Amino acid sequence: MTEDRIVKSIELNAPVARVWRALTDWREFGEWFHVKLEGPFAVGQVSRGQITHPGYEYMNWEAHIVRMEPERLFAYRWAQPISHDKEFYPMDYSREPTTLVEFRLEPSPGGTRLTVTESGFAALPDDRRERNFRANDGGWAQQMKNIEGYLAEKP
Fold first, then answer.
1. What's the chain's average pLDDT?
2. Positive/negative CA dihedral, 130, 61, 71, 120
3. Any idea what the CATH number is for the domain that residue 62 is in?
């Protein structure tokens, strides 16, 4: 059985307000996350876009924004499709199970400690639980590097 949650933390050399903006401004989020979003994030709304990472441009991005507590917590639910392979990739996420992604910010001596937690894998169907957990674990490791690099380039 795969664990239920992924947790990744990083110390960022930027103030909390700057990290918050990189997370919650839809244009900035899109730059480091590699997604072209259609518009701003709003609690209770669905955010949609297109992945721009080379080789994954066929993938949609869709997240239900569940919480935005300024400079503390940004959270959304997103779908866990049966496959990320192009030939099996669903273009409609409405029936796919979801996991919860939470970005937590805390002041630290060097700037900001950012922790991302994705939970809910234990509730996924057997045919995707372990594969999605592994894929997302690697994906979050990369996204932490992405936001770190982005903030270094655009302080």
1. 92
2. negative
3. 3.30.530.20
Residues with Cβ within 8 Å of residue 56, at least 6 apart in sequence: 34, 84
Per-residue confidence (pLDDT) for residue 1, from 0 to 100? 43
Single-letter amino acid code for the residue at 1: M
Q: Range of 40's domain?
A: 5-153
| Residue type, position 97, single letter | P
CA 31 – CA 51 distance, rounded (Å): 11
Q: How far is CA 33 from CA 122, 124, 129, in A?
A: 25, 24, 23
- Identify the three-state secondary structure at position 151: helix
Number of domains in the chain: 1
What pLDDT, in 10s, does the model give residues 78-106?
A: 998 776 666 666 667 778 899 999 999 99
